[in-house]
Amino acid sequence: MIGRLIGVLAEKQAPDILVDVRGVCYELQVPMSSIYQLPALGQNVVLHTHMVVREDAQLLYGFYSLQERRMFRSLIKVSGVGPKMALAILSGMAVDEFVKTVRVNDIAGLTRMPGIGRKTAERLIVEMKDRLGEWGEEIDAPDFSSGGQEQLPTERQLSQEAETALVALGYKPAEATRIIAKALKADPEISRSDELIRQALRSMAQS
Question: Cys-Cys crosslink for 165: which of 32, 98, 110, 195, Cβ 3.0 to 4.6 Å?
Answer without folding.
Answer: 32
